[in-house]
Protein backbone atom coordinates (compact mmCIF):
# COMPACT_ATOMS: atom_id res chain seq x y z
CA UNK A 1 0.00 0.00 0.00
CA UNK A 2 1.38 3.41 -0.83
CA UNK A 3 2.52 5.77 1.91
CA UNK A 4 0.09 8.55 1.02
CA UNK A 5 -3.00 6.30 1.14
CA UNK A 6 -4.42 7.80 4.37
CA UNK A 7 -4.10 11.38 3.16
CA UNK A 8 -5.64 10.56 -0.21
CA UNK A 9 -8.63 8.75 1.27
CA UNK A 10 -9.25 11.66 3.65
CA UNK A 11 -9.16 14.06 0.71
CA UNK A 12 -11.53 11.95 -1.35
CA UNK A 13 -14.10 11.70 1.40
CA UNK A 14 -14.66 15.46 1.19
CA UNK A 15 -16.14 15.01 -2.26
CA UNK A 16 -19.67 13.92 -3.07
CA UNK A 17 -19.51 11.37 -5.80
CA UNK A 18 -21.70 9.03 -7.76
CA UNK A 19 -20.03 5.62 -7.63
CA UNK A 20 -21.10 2.87 -9.99
CA UNK A 21 -20.59 -0.84 -9.39
CA UNK A 22 -18.69 -2.54 -12.22
CA UNK A 23 -20.50 -5.25 -14.14
CA UNK A 24 -17.81 -7.90 -14.45
CA UNK A 25 -19.91 -10.05 -16.71
CA UNK A 26 -20.46 -7.30 -19.29
CA UNK A 27 -19.51 -8.38 -22.79
CA UNK A 28 -16.61 -6.20 -23.88
CA UNK A 29 -15.00 -5.88 -27.30
CA UNK A 30 -12.11 -3.86 -28.61
CA UNK A 31 -12.63 -0.10 -28.87
CA UNK A 32 -13.79 0.99 -32.31
CA UNK A 33 -13.77 4.48 -33.70
CA UNK A 34 -17.15 4.26 -35.36
CA UNK A 35 -20.77 3.92 -34.33
CA UNK A 36 -22.15 1.73 -37.07
CA UNK A 37 -22.57 -1.62 -35.33
CA UNK A 38 -25.70 -0.86 -33.31
CA UNK A 39 -28.15 1.88 -32.63
CA UNK A 40 -31.76 2.83 -32.54
CA UNK A 41 -33.94 5.76 -31.63
CA UNK A 42 -32.65 9.30 -31.50
CA UNK A 43 -32.69 11.46 -28.40
CA UNK A 44 -31.88 14.97 -27.27
CA UNK A 45 -28.58 16.35 -25.98
CA UNK A 46 -28.17 18.65 -23.00
CA UNK A 47 -25.41 20.61 -21.28
CA UNK A 48 -23.49 19.59 -18.17
CA UNK A 49 -21.48 21.58 -15.63
CA UNK A 50 -17.83 20.88 -16.31
CA UNK A 51 -14.35 22.24 -15.82
CA UNK A 52 -12.32 21.41 -18.95
CA UNK A 53 -9.15 19.46 -18.42
CA UNK A 54 -8.04 20.71 -21.84
CA UNK A 55 -8.57 19.70 -25.44
CA UNK A 56 -6.68 19.58 -28.69
CA UNK A 57 -7.36 19.26 -32.37
CA UNK A 58 -5.36 16.06 -32.90
CA UNK A 59 -3.87 13.14 -31.03
CA UNK A 60 -0.57 14.99 -30.77
CA UNK A 61 -1.89 18.18 -29.22
CA UNK A 62 -2.05 18.87 -25.51
CA UNK A 63 -4.72 20.58 -23.47
CA UNK A 64 -4.55 23.29 -20.89
CA UNK A 65 -7.55 25.62 -21.23
CA UNK A 66 -9.35 26.01 -17.93
CA UNK A 67 -12.86 27.27 -17.28
CA UNK A 68 -16.43 25.99 -17.16
CA UNK A 69 -19.35 25.53 -19.48
CA UNK A 70 -22.61 27.30 -18.76
CA UNK A 71 -25.45 24.96 -17.97
CA UNK A 72 -28.10 24.93 -20.69
CA UNK A 73 -30.77 22.69 -22.08
CA UNK A 74 -31.15 22.05 -25.77
CA UNK A 75 -30.83 19.61 -28.59
CA UNK A 76 -33.30 17.89 -30.85
CA UNK A 77 -33.94 14.91 -33.04
CA UNK A 78 -31.06 13.75 -35.22
CA UNK A 79 -32.53 14.57 -38.62
CA UNK A 80 -31.32 12.66 -41.65
CA UNK A 81 -29.66 15.74 -43.17
CA UNK A 82 -27.55 16.54 -40.11
CA UNK A 83 -23.87 15.67 -40.56
CA UNK A 84 -21.88 13.81 -37.96
CA UNK A 85 -19.81 15.76 -35.45
CA UNK A 86 -16.25 16.29 -36.63
CA UNK A 87 -13.28 16.23 -34.28
CA UNK A 88 -12.39 19.84 -35.06
CA UNK A 89 -15.87 20.98 -33.99
CA UNK A 90 -15.79 19.21 -30.63
CA UNK A 91 -14.19 19.96 -27.28
CA UNK A 92 -13.68 17.31 -24.61
CA UNK A 93 -13.39 17.67 -20.85
CA UNK A 94 -13.72 15.56 -17.73
CA UNK A 95 -16.79 16.55 -15.73
CA UNK A 96 -15.60 17.77 -12.35
CA UNK A 97 -18.72 18.84 -10.50
CA UNK A 98 -19.41 17.70 -6.93
CA UNK A 99 -21.12 14.53 -8.10
CA UNK A 100 -18.76 13.76 -10.98
CA UNK A 101 -15.38 13.03 -9.40
CA UNK A 102 -14.52 9.35 -9.05
CA UNK A 103 -13.26 8.12 -5.70
CA UNK A 104 -11.04 5.01 -5.94
CA UNK A 105 -12.54 3.26 -2.92
CA UNK A 106 -14.71 0.15 -2.60
CA UNK A 107 -14.07 -1.14 -6.08
CA UNK A 108 -14.75 0.50 -9.42
CA UNK A 109 -16.27 3.90 -10.12
CA UNK A 110 -17.23 5.94 -13.16
CA UNK A 111 -15.95 9.20 -14.58
CA UNK A 112 -17.82 11.39 -17.06
CA UNK A 113 -16.33 12.99 -20.17
CA UNK A 114 -18.30 15.80 -21.79
CA UNK A 115 -18.23 16.45 -25.55
CA UNK A 116 -19.26 20.00 -26.51
CA UNK A 117 -20.21 21.16 -30.00
CA UNK A 118 -18.17 24.34 -30.42
CA UNK A 119 -19.17 24.69 -34.09
CA UNK A 120 -21.83 26.94 -35.61
CA UNK A 121 -24.25 24.19 -36.63
CA UNK A 122 -25.91 21.15 -35.12
CA UNK A 123 -24.17 17.82 -35.63
CA UNK A 124 -24.93 14.17 -34.94
CA UNK A 125 -23.21 11.76 -32.55
CA UNK A 126 -23.91 8.12 -31.88
CA UNK A 127 -21.96 5.06 -30.79
CA UNK A 128 -18.72 4.50 -28.96
CA UNK A 129 -15.78 6.89 -29.03
CA UNK A 130 -12.32 5.43 -29.32
CA UNK A 131 -10.55 6.01 -26.00
CA UNK A 132 -6.82 5.51 -25.54
CA UNK A 133 -4.89 6.08 -22.34
CA UNK A 134 -1.23 6.96 -22.69
CA UNK A 135 1.59 7.11 -20.15
CA UNK A 136 3.76 10.16 -19.46
CA UNK A 137 6.27 9.38 -22.17
CA UNK A 138 3.59 8.11 -24.54
CA UNK A 139 5.24 4.70 -24.78
CA UNK A 140 2.53 2.69 -23.04
CA UNK A 141 -0.84 2.94 -24.79
CA UNK A 142 -4.04 1.34 -23.54
CA UNK A 143 -6.96 1.20 -25.99
CA UNK A 144 -10.02 0.74 -23.81
CA UNK A 145 -12.54 -2.00 -24.46
CA UNK A 146 -16.17 -1.01 -24.76
CA UNK A 147 -19.26 -2.15 -22.90
CA UNK A 148 -22.26 -4.00 -24.29
CA UNK A 149 -24.61 -1.05 -23.70
CA UNK A 150 -27.03 -0.06 -26.47
CA UNK A 151 -26.82 3.41 -27.96
CA UNK A 152 -28.85 5.79 -30.07
CA UNK A 153 -27.87 8.71 -32.29
CA UNK A 154 -28.49 12.21 -31.01
CA UNK A 155 -28.25 15.71 -32.40
CA UNK A 156 -26.03 18.17 -30.53
CA UNK A 157 -26.87 21.79 -31.18
CA UNK A 158 -24.19 24.46 -31.51
CA UNK A 159 -22.93 25.37 -28.04
CA UNK A 160 -24.56 22.32 -26.45
CA UNK A 161 -22.98 19.09 -25.23
CA UNK A 162 -23.45 15.42 -24.56
CA UNK A 163 -21.37 12.97 -22.55
CA UNK A 164 -20.16 9.42 -22.04
CA UNK A 165 -18.69 7.58 -19.08
CA UNK A 166 -15.63 5.51 -18.33
CA UNK A 167 -15.76 2.67 -15.82
CA UNK A 168 -12.50 2.78 -13.88
CA UNK A 169 -10.82 0.12 -11.73
CA UNK A 170 -8.43 1.98 -9.42
CA UNK A 171 -5.70 0.45 -7.31
CA UNK A 172 -3.35 1.60 -4.56
CA UNK A 173 -0.97 -1.32 -4.89
CA UNK A 174 2.69 -0.83 -5.81
CA UNK A 175 2.61 -3.56 -8.45
CA UNK A 176 0.35 -4.34 -11.39
CA UNK A 177 -0.81 -0.76 -11.90
CA UNK A 178 -1.05 1.57 -14.90
CA UNK A 179 -0.62 5.32 -14.47
CA UNK A 180 -2.25 7.35 -17.27
CA UNK A 181 -1.07 10.83 -18.19
CA UNK A 182 -3.31 11.59 -21.17
CA UNK A 183 -6.64 10.48 -22.57
CA UNK A 184 -7.10 10.50 -26.35
CA UNK A 185 -10.72 10.52 -27.53
CA UNK A 186 -11.63 9.76 -31.15
CA UNK A 187 -15.27 10.63 -31.97
CA UNK A 188 -17.28 7.97 -33.86
CA UNK A 189 -16.35 7.71 -37.56
CA UNK A 190 -13.45 10.16 -37.11
CA UNK A 191 -9.69 9.53 -37.28
CA UNK A 192 -8.35 12.56 -35.39
CA UNK A 193 -8.41 12.53 -31.61
CA UNK A 194 -9.00 15.06 -28.86
CA UNK A 195 -6.33 14.88 -26.17
CA UNK A 196 -7.02 15.80 -22.54
CA UNK A 197 -5.03 15.35 -19.35
CA UNK A 198 -5.70 12.55 -16.91
CA UNK A 199 -6.88 14.65 -13.94
CA UNK A 200 -5.95 12.29 -11.09
CA UNK A 201 -2.16 12.34 -11.00
CA UNK A 202 -1.86 10.32 -7.81
CA UNK A 203 -4.44 7.70 -8.75
CA UNK A 204 -3.54 4.71 -10.91
CA UNK A 205 -5.55 1.91 -12.49
CA UNK A 206 -5.28 -1.85 -12.26
CA UNK A 207 -3.22 -2.79 -15.32
CA UNK A 208 -5.67 -4.94 -17.28
CA UNK A 209 -4.52 -4.09 -20.79
CA UNK A 210 -4.50 -7.76 -21.77
CA UNK A 211 -7.60 -8.81 -19.83
CA UNK A 212 -10.62 -10.28 -21.62
CA UNK A 213 -13.08 -8.50 -19.31
CA UNK A 214 -11.20 -5.50 -17.87
CA UNK A 215 -12.70 -3.39 -15.11
CA UNK A 216 -11.76 -0.21 -17.01
CA UNK A 217 -13.81 0.33 -20.16
CA UNK A 218 -15.80 2.89 -22.15
CA UNK A 219 -19.58 3.31 -22.44
CA UNK A 220 -21.46 4.79 -25.44
CA UNK A 221 -22.16 8.47 -26.03
CA UNK A 222 -25.43 9.89 -24.76
UniProtKB/TrEMBL annotation:
Entries under InterPro entries matching the protein: DUF4232
Lineage: superkingdom: Bacteria
Native source organism of the sequence: Streptomyces endocoffeicus
PROSITE patterns assigned: PROKAR_LIPOPROTEIN
Nucleotide-binding recorded as keyword: no
Biased composition (Gly residues): 54-66
Protein name in UniProt: DUF4232 domain-containing protein
Amino acid composition bias (Polar residues), ranges on this chain: 36-47
This protein's UniProt keywords: Signal
Any single Pfam family the record assigns to this protein: DUF4232
Signal peptide positions (record): 1-32
Chain ranges of the DUF4232 domain: 85-199
UniProt-annotated stretches for the region Disordered: 36-75
